[in-house]
């Protein structure tokens, strides 16, 4: 139960956000540009894999029957009538009682039905002594044994990791239709803000949120861009948003959403009537705006304190980006960790605290808190590697008990 009946829960707000997302038209990308994305077509192969019968070993191609009587003491000696290397473009052939030296991956000559590995021979050049019988089919990779021609290779919805990209390349696809990365544009609002690289005068604050949110959006899989700073000015904000609308699948602003007289984002966008400003039963991140601009471009208006912006991003924007990517699992993985200190939390509020997650020698996790409850603390946010989640109904976590932790893993992009 929320302490304040007017507060919406995090889960309720997330449901509204997710229901308010459309889908982005699939696009065609080259293989490496498609890495990490979900396939938006069913792909079948025109060619068989492997494309032709070929040798699994370096050795000698033989007719199995010719080697039937071979033993280490009495090897079968056969004349070597040629070499087949990988890359041979015409099929060679050999008659009964003969062999050809063959490399791994080279086409099996017509007339041969097995390969004796080099190590089971005397490695002869003009003739070769074979020290054991070869089974028919031995060391032969059959055409189509991996995937026959015409077979489905990958289905729509498949995630394209290195293995899947390898398969697409192997069957000759250089481009595929995928769910694209949502284009996320990030704007910081606040008349106190200046761009990084300028020395702040008294009262000025260097914009860090746009870096935080743009990086977090990229980390979530978006094609995110930092648009920059807009002052607390009604028409400048609307102009900035309007000029970006055609380029965006998602807009994110930070700042200007609380109750203050200068909270221009809230005022300006409330008037449009398509963005709703609500108070959520969470801490930090209580004031939130979400809605649509233009041709239903979703817009998130996050609070301006950097920690609030991060927590709000994690709670609402990240799952939205993942949904637009087509991912089934929208939430980050959590772990249970032993709290190393006591934490109090207001009833009815989901509290997110920054923490440092430790892996214990015994295999479990423990977590300590950093930064207190202040959501302006950027340095302590930078020293954290996780969020500790204290659920709505929990008012006290005693030291030594278990808490839910969201590790904020560094993505390799
Ligand atoms: P607001 O949500 O606009 O009331 O801002 C709350 C606090 O966050 C204020 O102290 C702002 O100066 C600070 N803040 C807002 N936007 C940013 C930003 N882009 N970078 C760093 N701090 C910010
Ligand atoms: Mg502000």
From TrEMBL:
Looking up InterPro entries in the UniProt record yields:
MoaB/Mog-like_dom_sf (IPR036425), MoaB/Mog_dom (IPR001453), MoeA-like (IPR038987), MoeA_C_domain_IV (IPR005111), MoeA_C_domain_IV_sf (IPR036688), MoeA_linker/N (IPR005110), MoeA_linker/N_sf (IPR036135)
Recorded superkingdom? Bacteria
Please name the pathway. Cofactor biosynthesis; molybdopterin biosynthesis
For this protein, the record's Gene3D superfamilies field holds:
MoaB/Mog-like domain, MoeA, C-terminal, domain IV, Molybdopterin biosynthesis moea protein, domain 2, Molybdopterin biosynthesis moea protein, domain 3
Sorted alphabetically, which keywords does the UniProt record give? Magnesium, Metal-binding, Molybdenum, Molybdenum cofactor biosynthesis, Transferase
Keyword Transferase assigned: yes
Tell me the Pfam families matching this sequence.
Answer: MoCF_biosynth, MoeA_C, MoeA_N
**Domain (MoaB/Mog): residue spans on this chain:** 185-323
Question: What is its cofactor?
Answer: Mg(2+)
Q: Which SMART domains match?
A: MoCF_biosynth
> Could you say which EC number(s) this protein's record lists?
2.10.1.1
Q: Which reaction does it catalyse?
A: adenylyl-molybdopterin + molybdate = Mo-molybdopterin + AMP + H(+)
Q: What does this protein do?
A: Catalyzes the insertion of molybdate into adenylated molybdopterin with the concomitant release of AMP.
Family designation? Belongs to the MoeA family.
Q: What is this protein called?
A: Molybdopterin molybdenumtransferase
């Amino acid at each position: 139960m929320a302490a304040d009946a007017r507060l919406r829960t995090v889960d309720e707000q997330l449901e509204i956000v997710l229901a308010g997302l459309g889908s982005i038209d699939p696009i065609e990308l080259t293989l490496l540009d498609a890495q990490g994305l979900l396939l938006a077509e069913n792909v079948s192969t025109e060619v068989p894999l492997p494309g032709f019968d070929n040798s699994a070993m370096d050795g000698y191609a033989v007719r199995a029957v010719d080697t039937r009587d071979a033993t280490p003491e009495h090897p079968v000696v056969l004349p070597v009538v040629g070499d087949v290397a990988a890359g041979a473009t015409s099929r060679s052939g050999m008659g009964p009682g003969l062999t050809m030296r063959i490399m791994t991956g080279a086409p099996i000559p017509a007339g041969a039905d097995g390969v004796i590995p080099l190590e089971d021979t005397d490695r002869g050049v003009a003739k070769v002594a074979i020290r054991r019988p070869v089974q028919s089919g031995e060391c032969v990779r059959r055409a189509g044994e991996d995937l026959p021609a015409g077979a489905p290779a990958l289905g729509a919805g498949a995630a394209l990791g290195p293995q899947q990209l390898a398969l697409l390349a192997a069957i000759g696809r250089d481009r595929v239709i995928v769910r694209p990365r949502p284009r996320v544009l990030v704007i910081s609002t606040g008349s106190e803000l200046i761009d990084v690289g300028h020395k702040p005068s008294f009262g000025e604050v260097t914009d860090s949120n746009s870096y935080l949110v743009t990086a977090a959006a990229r980390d979530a899989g978006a094609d995110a861009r930092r648009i920059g700073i807009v002052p607390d000015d009604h028409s400048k904000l609307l102009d900035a948003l309007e000029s970006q609308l055609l380029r965006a699948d998602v807009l994110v602003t930070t700042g200007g959403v609380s109750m203050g007289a200068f909270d221009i984002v809230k005022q300006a966008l409330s008037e449009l009537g398509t963005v709703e400003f609500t108070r959520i039963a969470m801490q930090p991140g209580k004031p939130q705006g979400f809605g649509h601009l233009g041709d239903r471009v979703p817009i998130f208006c996050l609070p301006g304190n950097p920690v609030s912006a991060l927590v709000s991003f994690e709670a609402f924007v990240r799952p939205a980006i993942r949904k637009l990517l087509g991912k089934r699992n929208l939430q980050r993985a959590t772990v249970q960790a032993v709290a190393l200190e006591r934490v109090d939390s207001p009833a009815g509020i989901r509290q997110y605290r920054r923490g440092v997650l430790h892996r214990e020698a015994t295999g479990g996790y423990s977590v300590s808190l950093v930064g207190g409850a202040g959501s302006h603390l950027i340095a302590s946010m930078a020293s954290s590697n996780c969020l500790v989640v204290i659920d709505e109904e929990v008012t006290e976590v005693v030291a030594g008990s278990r808490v839910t932790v969201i590790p904020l893993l560094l993505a390799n992009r």
